[in-house]
Amino acid sequence: MRAPRTFHVKSFGCQMNVYDGERMSELMATDGLVAADADSADLVVLNTCHIREKATEKVYSDIGRMRKTARLAGRAAPMIAVAGCVAQAEGEEIVARAKVDVVVGPQAYHRLPALVRDAAAGAPAIDTALPALAKFAGLPARRRVAPSAFLTVQEGCDKFCTYCVVPYTRGAEVSRPFAAIVDEAKALIDAGAKEITLLGQNVNAWADGEQGLHDLIRALDRIPGLARIRYTTSHPNDLTQGLIDAHRDVAGLMPFLHLPVQAGSDRVLRAMNRSHTRDGYLRLIDRIRAARPDIALSGDFIVGFPGETEAEFAETLGLVDAVGYAQAFSFNYSPRPGTPAATLPGRIAPEEMNERLQRLQAAINRDQLAFNRASVGRICEVLIERPGKRPGQVLGKSPWLQSVHLDAAAPIGDLIAVELVEAGPNSLAGVARIQAAA
Ligand code: SAH
Ligand code: SF4
Ligand code: F3S
């Protein structure tokens, strides 16, 4: 196979997967390849997600579709590299099943250029080693980024929730060193970022010596040019008082917290190995709200875990009522190969799961709309992130991570004072105001 001259990276997964995709793109560009669209690139990197069965299967259907498109257009099929969490979980099986050229795991993608050269020379090109943090030293500096940028500070997970593949695909919990993160933050700001979202599978487990995530946040808040800090995803067990205090004190830390709980029943939480209770979670929420009353809360839920009864599911609905989320993600349970829950008895029928999911999503949507409606009349800063659908319209985010659209000639990357004037379920309309944000 000819060495590729153009490339395309397609990311399928979580925010960290998107971050990895950006860094792979920067790496390939530094290696001399030119970015192209998916249908014409010589090399397509599929940056995959293994979290649920649907995500994994999508990779295989995508590969088939890409080859067919190339064939119908009379082009040679592109070189295909499978990166990300499916690469880590399935390794050589992907080559056997789909005859792809390169397989590279999420901790080894700094080796992508070398693997692509190996593949072009006809050699096997698979790297699913899990060295802690090795990749970061091998990645080029950040150069041009959007106003809101991601920065991975922590990777991996030691929690082993019984349904979840992440501890196997990302490896053990590791934190990047304080100095490396500050350097990357400064590079992101120089490259145009106004907001940085710190990423980790358990971001609040980040530590460097005595320092915890709250110390890192306080240090980043002092960097000139950085207006906003966010972080995701947090685990309830690692939510320290220091972090709660930071939400009270640090002006640049946005009033938003994504704190997955997964289920409302203690029996289900135990079976999931979540190691926190319903009550423990609700008490945490009380403490966060006491420190930062306007905080917007978000969560993740799994519906239909094996053995979940209707009464146990009702406890999830009750928890949603008790918290009043500003937004939340919810998923049907998907059995994952190699996880303990996959062999549990009591699988819930798909129709039953769908029915529960719909009820849960109706409750979440109701609260999301209520949260947005309660924001009408507020004057806040909006970070302008992109042009809107209509000419003259721009889109941005409120401090509470709501999408806000407004008719204003505001440049992308500006922070402007906006009055929120109208609420829908997924976004708000705003009007630019001259005065400083309240
Ligand atoms: N580390 C984060 C995110 C993990 S993956 C955390 O612990 O919160 C994101 C979400 O996917 C999880 O919070 C969970 O709600 C969902 N998820 C994980 N495994 C799943 C599975 N097997 N089936 C359905 N949803 C799953
Ligand atoms: Fe998965 Fe649980 Fe770890 Fe989150 S805390 S990544 S859900 S094992
Ligand atoms: Fe998916 Fe891996 Fe993220 S499994 S959710 S891409 S950590």
**Percent range of helical residues:** 25-40%
Instruction: State the separation between the terminal residues, measured CA to CA.
Output: 60 Å
Count all strands and give the number.
21
State the assembly state of the protein chains: single chain
Low-confidence spans: pLDDT under 50, at least 5 residues?
none
What top-tier CATH class of the largest domain fits best? Alpha Beta
Strand order of the largest sheet: 2-1-3-4-5-6
Strand content: 15-25%
And the CATH topology of the largest domain? pyruvate-formate lyase- activating enzyme
> Major beta sheet, specifics?
6 strands, parallel
What's the mean pLDDT score?
96
CATH architecture of the largest domain: Alpha-Beta Horseshoe
C-alpha-based Rg, rounded: 22 Å
CATH superfamily of the largest domain: tm_1862 like domain
Q: What's the number of domains?
A: 3
Explain briefly what this protein structure is.
The chain is α/β, with parallel strands linked by helices and 438 residues long. Helix content is 36%, strand content 23%. The chain contains 14 helices and 21 strands.
Your description of this structure?
The protein has 438 residues and is of the alpha/beta class. The chain has three domains: 6-133, Rossmann fold; 135-373, pyruvate-formate lyase- activating enzyme (Alpha-Beta Horseshoe); 379-432, OB fold (Dihydrolipoamide Acetyltransferase, E2P) (Beta Barrel). Helices cover 36% and strands 23% of the residues. The strands form six sheets. The protein has a six-stranded parallel beta sheet, sandwiched between helices. A five-stranded mixed barrel has the order 17-18-19-21-20. A three-stranded parallel beta sheet has the order 7-10-13, sandwiched between helices. β11 (207-208) and β12 form a beta hairpin. The termini are far apart. The model has no long low-confidence stretch (mean pLDDT 96). Iron/sulfur cluster is lined by residues 157, 159-161, 164, 166-167, 201-202, 235.
